[in-house]
Write a structure and sequence with these properties.
Layout lengths: L2 H16 L3 H8 L14 H8 L1 H28 L6 H20 L12 H10 L5 H18 L2 H22 L8 H17 L1 H9 L3 E4 L2 E4 L1
Antiparallel strand pairs: 1-2
């Protein structure tokens, strides 16, 4: 089997795994369609608003694993078929497999090509691209946590975390004496993740601007 056939299989499998709407499925187990309550999103934060913190954690971890597992597995498989493939090509292939899971989550064919915001799945992918993107991903998650804690708006944390991801990657790379031009696949990937996170939060940005975005507080969410 050729490298390119294995890559195509890995990308397809990653997309389909990423497309599994765990938030919706868990809501269904509780007799709830999470798309009709709260923000209407199938991601962990909306599930947590509806069902509680425990289910936020469950969905967050499952969505993270949708990115982590195919990225690690795909990278491992591809190395066995990369005998005549350059290292930059192998790097790009690994990133393509991971990015496919993010696209699957955001544009799930099981939800008529709708889906979540891709934050936790993107984190899983970045953690799986070890060691290149792992530290920037952890720090970007810290930015998300800080933004959320300060504003009580998950969307603010997600946007700030997404934007910080490529900046942190380039900053860490430069600090370590690396050359961004030589590591351009990772620069491009981190920038694409940031753009996708911002685009998926377009409606949230409009609500933040108008002062109507939902805040998460003790006892439940409220607007304003």
């Amino acid at each position: 089997m050729s490298f390119w056939v294995v890559l195509a299989i890995c990308v397809l499998a990653s997309f389909l795994l990423g497309a599994i709407p765990f938030g919706l499925l868990i809501g269904r187990l509780h007799g709830i369609d999470v798309r009709t309550i709260g923000s209407g999103n199938v991601g962990a934060m909306n599930v947590g608003r509806i069902l509680g913190r425990k289910w936020f954690v469950v969905v967050f971890v499952l969505d993270l694993l949708k990115g982590l597992i195919p990225t690690l597995t795909g990278g491992w498989l591809l190395t066995f078929y990369a005998i005549e493939v350059s290292i930059p090509t192998l790097m790009i292939a690994r990133l393509l497999v991971g990015f496919a899971s993010i696209l699957g989550h955001n544009y799930s064919p099981f939800l008529k090509f709708r889906g979540g915001k891709g934050v936790s799945t993107s984190l899983g992918v970045a953690l799986g691209v070890y060691p290149d993107l792992t530290l920037p991903a952890v720090l970007a998650f810290g930015v998300w946590a800080a933004g959320f804690s300060l504003t009580r708006m998950s969307s603010v944390g997600s946007i700030l975390g997404g934007i910080s991801f490529p900046l942190l990657y380039v900053g860490i790379l430069t600090y370590r004496g690396g050359n961004a031009a030589e590591h351009w696949p990772f620069v491009v990937f981190s920038a694409l993740v940031a753009v996708l996170v911002v685009v998926r939060h377009k409606a949230n940005i409009a609500r933040i601007w108008s002062g109507t975005e939902t805040r998460v507080v003790r006892g439940g969410p409220h607007s304003g």
